[in-house]
Prior knowledge:
Belongs to the dethiobiotin synthetase family. By secondary structure, the protein is an alpha/beta fold. The chain has 17 helices and 18 strands. It folds into 2 domains: 253 residues, Rossmann fold; 202 residues, P-loop containing nucleotide triphosphate hydrolases (Rossmann fold, 3-Layer(aba) Sandwich). The protein has a 7-stranded mixed sheet with strand order 3-2-1-4-5-7-6, with helices on both faces. Strands 11-9-13-8-16-17-18 form a 7-stranded parallel sheet, with helices on both faces. A two-stranded parallel sheet has the order 10-12. Strand 17, helix 16 and strand 18 form a beta-alpha-beta unit.
Amino acid sequence: MNSYKQKIIKSFDMAVSYEQSAHIQKIVAKRLAQFIKTLDMDCSQPLSILEIGCGTGLLTQLIIDFFPKAQLLITDISPYMIERVKKKYGNNPNIQFKVMDGEAIDLEQSFDLIVSSLAFQWFENLEHSLKTITTLLNPNGYLLCSTLAQQSFKEWRQIYAEHDCHCSFQSYPNVETLDSYWSSEIGGGFWQSETILESIKNGIEFIKGLRAIGAHIAAKTHKPLSAAQFQKILTQFNEDYGYTTYEVALGCFRRFAAKGFFVTGTDTDVGKTFISACLTKALGATYWKPMQTGLNCDLGDSKNIQILAQIPDAQIIPPLIELQEPLSPEEAAKSEAITLDIHQLDFSLPTQNRPYIVEGAGGVLVPVAGSQYMLQMMQKVNLPVVIVARTELGTLNHTLLTINVLRNHHIPIAGVILNGNLNPANKEAIERHGRIAVIAEVPYIEKITDQFIAQFTKEIILFY
């Protein structure tokens, strides 16, 4: 363990008045707990949960309250912090404790939920650590975390800069940089930032508060100031500010349910089912159409896929919902006096060696029931989305709108597949305006040939 980490341990081991001074930490722990309540997780189940950087247990208690049947592993780099949490919760048979550096995880088990509140800003290589931590998640498992972001302590940074002094505060990434740290190969994640202003009596009281919680470790590149320089900085802070800024980034990452893709379209008759057949054939996948409409005028997509992709029954999962009219699921269900509810349907994917191709019914905002749309089904299925679009006039608007809706709902997008006559201008425009890759361009063909699949597979495998 390097000297920087040893300083962190020593500092937190000496933070005997942590809870009395950890005002921001309490606020952030509560905010993170509120965020956790919005997740699609059954708190009545005996889930496995890991906490990284427990401190004195501010978030721990909230997690215990919300997940009373969970098996918890509580960790921190500071032995003193672990001992304090043990005194509070050591009699709970569902809780284990471990002194552990979150950047040097030595665990073999996996978890349904990993939480961490204001610990990641101490990591020396957060990008690498996030990729390591997310591999510990079970399929559909979540990582919920918080860390300080770029604008934290901006008042102090401004004063240091005006006096041409090297700032002692750590540097933190902005939200865009944090977003780039997620491992898109195994799941999808996002960050959102919130600003908290802490009222401060004066600069000395602020420094004392940092020491009280063990958070006064200077950046590794910091050059100590003279007493005169430090006094000038304190004086200006007292004159200009009665507060300091904390920019807190809340992060949410969810591991994909399985390998594969969810296929959606930008419009009717864009070739979504045909592309699903191509993907199923190319990847040797299992196909599933959870909601099927229009059975009174068609064999149904499952049968069509089986014929197009030439796959056996074993690679087809029957639909959950089968409706007769060629309408949206909501309208088709009404015609049969059926009320649909996405939350009452089981969209879990059984563990298997094959990937999955799951096809939606129409586009992302096709109504299912009430305020439920195909979006909610995508979130339940939890696979990266492939958008199938035309190459012709009008595709830019439809495709860019679909991309924006998915991103606004934090649904991971694998890319776009264009179906139709090649159109280089539209391909370039979609990639530039949508900031997304066009995975493949599929010309109109009547039959899925082995030669076509061989070429299609080469294109798809780069994004798989």
